[in-house]
Write a structure and sequence with these properties.
about 450 residues; alpha+beta; PmbA/TldD fold; 5-stranded mixed beta barrel; 9 helices; 18 strands
Length: about 450
């Protein structure tokens, strides 16, 4: 056991009540006003959790986490200063406010800085059912992690080593308020089970992993099923080889397709747009995807990992279309980037909320069966994406398809194209939607990319 903060105990949901944190927010806002700030905003959060990890049947770590923080920003006109404190006592908060005010007096004016427009702030905070604490003892967490790893070893004799299995539970409460009269907060939880193992066949060694994550502990996959899936994925990679350089269809599994949509989000995010650092500058109303692609933001889905009633500036979140029939309908903006662009915030301070790609009718197997000769991508490596030009080149691994059937695993290849062409060249989105993240999508089939191998 490499580290253990406690030998026993539970991951309790003993967070402070919301009123306690609201009082700290109000105290800081009043302190800023007394020091002459024309506006201020404060965020207070308290988080706690338990994680247990094992490797080769031995406990590696058990960690109890308790974190708290107060972050504030003050404005003197259009001059801004920020500070933070992990201490919620009056003197500490007062000191942080004083520090932020001192900083603001030395910063340059920026006409786009300031609080979110008052009329856009959330007037109601709907209950999205995001808080489901897991009353998990240390012994129970270790037991599940051990069961997860053992299930992986039991799945196939080719599994001969492990990077470990981990069980994690987390709960937190955040309250945000500003001097425009907004104050709101809500608790949220997140739990996960994960496992990574290594498989050997002769001199070849492969590694893979699997996980399950949810806000609701009862919705997690069983520890044994996570371990088995990690083992199955690892064994499937044994026998990997390169393929010859070619141009062919590429099918991204849901977990890899999520990264494609992530690049789209980056390209339509305000910071990149006002800096002219995106290949989608001035693309509103233009076709950027294939006509059958629809992308919506759904921030109020109950229990979803990306749900939030308001964003990091207190702006009410709302469902909206980013892409309709392939055409770009919206950007991803906070108040600052919106002002830089002469637009209105989209309620995305802190990121998107449950960005969902509308699924098609085919499942993964049906998409594979429609590929005469092509590649299924299950792993991506490297950072070869240029959002300014859209150029895309990343290391990849996966499986080669011939006549609608997977014939062998593939590794040490590079897939390349341009995001503009890739988005327009999406021929199908699968109904195998993965909801274990903030981007919810099925497999995505791109009709043609360059595959560089031997």
């Amino acid at each position: 056991m490499s580290s253990m903060t406690e030998s026993s105990g539970r991951a309790r949901s003993g967070l402070p009540d919301k009123a306690t944190l609201e009082e700290r927010v109000e105290f800081a806002l009043n302190a800023a006003k007394r020091l002459g700030a024309s506006a201020a905003e404060v965020s207070v959060s308290v988080e706690q959790g338990l994680s247990a990890s094992v490797r080769r049947g031995e406990v590696e770590t058990v960690e109890h986490r308790r974190d708290r923080g107060l972050a504030l920003t003050v404005y003197f006109g259009r001059c801004k200063g920020s500070a933070a404190s992990a201490d919620f006592a009056d003197d500490a908060v007062q000191g942080a406010v004083q520090a932020a005010c001192d900083i603001a007096r030395y910063t340059s004016e920026d006409p786009c800085q300031g609080l979110a427009d008052p009329e856009l702030l959330a007037r109601e905070v709907p209950d999205l059912d995001l808080h489901h604490p897991w009353d998990l003892s240390v012994d129970a967490a270790i037991e599940q992690a051990l069961a997860c790893e053992q299930a992986a070893f039991d799945t196939d004799p080719a599994i001969d080593n492990s990077e470990g299995a981990e069980v994690d539970t987390h709960t937190g409460l955040r309250v945000y308020g500003n001097s425009n009269g907004f104050i709101g907060g809500y608790p949220a939880s997140s739990h996960s089970i994960s496992c990574a193992v290594l498989g050997r066949r002769g001199d070849e060694l492969q590694r893979d992993f699997w996980f399950s994550v949810s806000r609701v502990p009862e919705a997690l996959d069983s520890a044994a099923s996570v371990g088995r899936r990690a083992a199955e994925r690892t064994v499937a990679r044994l026998g990997s080889r390169r393929v010859g350089t070619t141009s062919a269809p590429v099918l991204f599994t849901p977990q890899m397709a999520r990264s494609l949509i992530g690049h789209f989000v980056g390209a339509v995010s305000g910071g990149n747009l006002y800096r002219k650092a995106s290949f989608l500058v001035d693309s509103l109303g233009q076709p950027v995807f294939a006509p059958q692609v629809n992308v919506h933001e759904q921030p109020h889905l109950p229990q979803a990992l990306g749900s939030a009633p308001f964003d990091g500036e207190g702006v009410a979140t709302r469902s909206r279309a980013l892409v309709e029939s392939g055409e770009l309908r919206g950007y991803v903006l906070n108040s600052y980037s919106a002002r830089k662009l002469g637009m209105q915030t989209t309620g995305n301070a802190g990121g998107v909320h449950n960005l969902s790609v509308e699924p098609g009718e085919a499942d993964f197997d049906e998409l594979v069966s429609g590929i005469e000769r092509g590649l299924v991508v299950t792993h991506l490596m490297g950072q070869g994406v240029n959002l300014v030009t859209g150029d895309y080149s990343r290391g990849a691994a996966g499986f080669w398809v011939e006549n609608g059937e997977i014939v062998h695993p593939v590794e040490e290849i590079t897939i390349a194209g341009n995001l503009r062409d890739m988005f327009r060249g999406i021929s199908a989105v699968g109904r195998d939607v993965d909801v274990q993240g903030n981007v919810r999508t099925g497999s995505i089939l791109v009709e043609r990319m360059t595959i560089a191998g031997e």
